Amino acid sequence: MSKTIGVIIDFLTDDYRRQIDAAAEKHGYTTRYYPDSASAVGNADDCEILYGHCSRKVISSAKSLKWFCCCWAGVDQFCDGALYHNPGCLLSNSSGAYGVTIAEHLVMTSLMLLRRQPEYTEVIRNGEWRVLKGGIHSLYGCRVTVLGAGDIGTEFARRVKPFHPAKITGVRRSARPGDGAFDEMHTTAELDEILRETDLLVMALPNTPDTANILDARRMALLPEGAYVINVGRGTAVDQDALIAALGSGHLAGAALDVVVPEPLPADHPLRGAKNLLLTPHVAGNMTLPYTQQKSVSMFLEDLDRFVRGEPLAHAVDRSRGY
């Protein structure tokens, strides 16, 4: 009896199907495709491997599961050991597939904020035609800090480097060296001092106990007056009430959030009315870019080879850390 790989991806094409089927057959697996998570619940008992956008209910119902390869980069919702029938079940993610698309979103929002596009949109919408006082700002000479110097943060640093900012500083949990696009690399223990010399703060952090509310009212106050904040990691990293207050007072000149708490954001939520805030509904990543889709499939197939050989997965997640 052949072993089974269950696949739940909303970007399935004939080409991706051929790639997955060929790799599965090579290793003695059959593939079963589910149109969505609801159809997989209770019908994935014999799947040793699951790949894709699976719900918690699918994982908890898969009694034979040995490895779950998630299409998302953030997998905090799948780190609970109680979800798995097999305590040794492996978890991997698609961190590394989203850097290109989210970095482009970061460049876009950086330029929109610095050049005051949200404010000019309001000027035009209100029937006016005037130049805002205070001028605009530039990435040229800007002191950029990237909080979360992983795949996304690194891809952003590489793209913003040609704009000639004064300095690109990376901040990460560990002290290991970063990509050459960063001028400096520091640990989160040094964050307070780094914020004092930051004009543009870009946040690309996973959701862990250490990152919850990492940018609170106290740390926002450390940022220079007129600084900007962009968050594409997890909404839990920012004290949203403090952000609204900092924007309202003018201490922060603007902010952009692609991730918020809760999601979806209620129609009457105070964030929707915050001053100079650019909001997007968690669309910086997703699987809309063909590059992201192919990269995710390729990463799964590369790790499938490793899984069959009994080697460590290249994209394994430490469930105790959440990434």
Q: Mind explaining what this structure looks like?
A:
The chain contains ten helices and twelve strands. It has helices at residues 14-26, 37-40, 56-61, 99-114, 117-125, 151-160, 191-195, 217-222, 240-249, 290-309; strands at residues 3-8, 29-33, 47-52, 67-70, 90-92, 143-147, 167-172, 184-187, 200-203, 227-231, 252-257, 277-279. Helix 6 links the parallel strand 6 (143-147) and strand 7 (167-172). Helix 1 runs parallel beside helix 10 and helix 4 (99-114) crosses helix 6. The longest helix has 20 residues, at 290-309. The mean pLDDT is 96.
Q: Work out the helix count.
A: 10
**Contiguous uncertain segments of 5+ residues:** none
Radius of gyration: 22 Å
How many E strands? 12
Average predicted confidence as pLDDT: 96
Helix content: 25-40%
Q: What is the makeup of the main sheet?
A: 7 strands, parallel
Structural class: alpha/beta
Order of helices and strands: EHEHEHEEHHEHEEHEHEHEEH
Tertiary shape: elongated
What share of residues are in beta strands?
15-25%
The main sheet orders its strands as: 8-7-6-9-10-11-12
Give short descriptive properties of this protein.
323 residues; alpha/beta; seven-stranded parallel β-sheet; 10 helices
Topology:
Elements: E1 3-8, H1 14-26, E2 29-33, H2 37-40, E3 47-52, H3 56-61, E4 67-70, E5 90-92, H4 99-114, H5 117-125, E6 143-147, H6 151-160, E7 167-172, E8 184-187, H7 191-195, E9 200-203, H8 217-222, E10 227-231, H9 240-249, E11 252-257, E12 277-279, H10 290-309
Parallel strand pairs: 1-2, 1-3, 3-4, 4-5, 6-7, 6-9, 7-8, 9-10, 10-11, 11-12
Helix pairs in contact: 1-10, 4-6
